[in-house]
């Protein structure tokens, strides 16, 4: 079926009191695997491409330096892949821009085929954040595209997002932000962190979530709260990477129990990226360990070389440049690439499948309205 905007899925989440995992993808194979595992669990799907992931999918392997043109190309590549595998899928699929850096990044994603965007103005003063977010909301809603904003600052590092310290979201400011911008969802800071090093035994400030949701209900405002930096960083995967020669240190995620406890408080969308990166990297390392003859493969030997050179990294984008045609377009030229793609897909499914169950979205796909962008645009006009 065609991709849907985020809003109908948010309304379902809010009505039935569960959370929808939102999972970042950086390659055609990852998008395919993510949709397939959601189908298996009869869950709707939110696939996310981060702002710089669009740069990577546009062929910029040094994606930290991606230009707007790179991002435009990459947005179309990701959207084409997601549309391809969603077209015959029985589940609703949303393609969401994660951490849009500015208005132009959001516009590029929408033009490329994204059905939902996040504009991250959290580093700006409140009034400037409101102004920027409102601008994106106006542009996006006219096209039926949903919008997520952010208020409060998360510590940690992930793509272009960086902060040494966090600033918790003020519930009163959050309500004001919803009123002034018209966003559909809001990412808040309540104790999560970007990246793999979140600290041991993190306790989430669930009272912040409760306060915001209570205030929104009193004001009659619809809004779903989003948990960023919520990867669980499974210890068993980190241990397996290190046993295979990796050097991943001080990697601690958010407890699944903490995340699950935040869902009834009002968290409806939970972003996960690091778990997928770890599982895919572990699988690639394991593949070359089990099949040493593949280390000298003309097509994938370069991937092995990068895995060996960058033992302290776990982002697959650090290792995949030798097969960028496969990453960007899904082309599989030979059996060696096919074998590597297969283990990448298995890693994605392992990381996502467990969280679909934990967050409670399994079996909920039939509850989500199949609204088109045009239909949503008409609805937004009446809001």
TrEMBL record:
The active site is at residue 98. Zn(2+) 1 binds at residues 99, 194, 228. It is an enzyme of class 4 (lyase). InterPro entries: Aldolase_TIM, Class_II_FBP_aldolase, FBA_II. Its cofactor is Zn(2+). Dihydroxyacetone phosphate binds at residues 195, 229-231, 271-274. Keywords: Lyase, Metal-binding, Zinc. It holds the Pfam family F_bP_aldolase. GO terms for biological process: carbohydrate metabolic process. Zn(2+) 2 binds at residues 120, 150. Binds 2 Zn(2+) ions per subunit. One is catalytic and the other provides a structural contribution. One of its GO terms (molecular function) is zinc ion binding. This is Fructose-bisphosphate aldolase. It comes from Coprococcus catus GD/7.
């Amino acid at each position: 079926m065609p991709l849907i905007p985020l809003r109908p899925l948010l309304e379902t989440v809010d009505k039935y009191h569960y959370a929808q995992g939102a999972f970042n993808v950086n390659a055609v194979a990852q998008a395919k695997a993510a949709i397939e595992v959601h189908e298996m669990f009869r869950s709707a799907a939110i696939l996310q491409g981060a702002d710089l992931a669009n740069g990577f999918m546009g062929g910029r392997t040094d994606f930290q330096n991606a230009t707007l043109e790179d991002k435009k190309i990459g947005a179309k590549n990701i959207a084409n892949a997601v549309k391809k595998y969603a077209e015959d899928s029985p589940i609703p699929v949303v393609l969401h821009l994660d951490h849009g850096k500015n208005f132009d990044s959001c516009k590029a994603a929408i033009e490329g085929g994204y059905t939902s965007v996040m504009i991250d103005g959290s580093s700006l003063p409140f009034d400037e954040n409101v102004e920027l977010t409102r601008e994106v909301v106006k542009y996006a809603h006219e096209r039926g595209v949903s919008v997520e904003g952010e208020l409060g600052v998360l510590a940690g590092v992930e793509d272009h997002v960086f902060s040494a310290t966090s600033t918790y979201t003020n519930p009163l400011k959050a309500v004001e932000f919803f009123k002034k911008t018209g966003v559909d969802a809001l990412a808040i800071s309540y104790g999560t962190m970007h990246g793999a090093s979140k600290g041991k035994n993190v306790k989430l400030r669930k009272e912040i979530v409760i306060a915001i949701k209570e205030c929104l209900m009193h004001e009659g405002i619809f809004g779903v709260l989003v948990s960023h930096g919520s990867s669980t960083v499974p210890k068993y995967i980190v241990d397996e990477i290190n046993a295979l020669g990796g050097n991943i240190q001080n990697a601690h995620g958010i407890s699944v129990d903490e995340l699950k406890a935040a869902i009834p408080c009002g968290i409806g969308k939970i972003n996960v990226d690091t778990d997928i990166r770890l599982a895919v990297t572990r699988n690639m390392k394991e593949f070359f360990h089990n099949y040493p003859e593949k280390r000298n493969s003309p097509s994938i030997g370069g991937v092995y070389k990068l895995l060996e050179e960058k033992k302290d990294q776990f982002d697959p984008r650090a290792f995949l440049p030798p097969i960028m045609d496969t990453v960007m377009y899904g082309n599989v030229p030979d059996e060696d690439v096919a074998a590597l793609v297969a283990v990448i897909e298995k890693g994605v499914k392992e990381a996502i499948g467990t969280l679909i169950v934990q967050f409670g979205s399994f079996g909920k796909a039939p509850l989500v309205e199949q609204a088109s962008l045009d239909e949503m645009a008409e609805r937004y006009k009446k809001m």
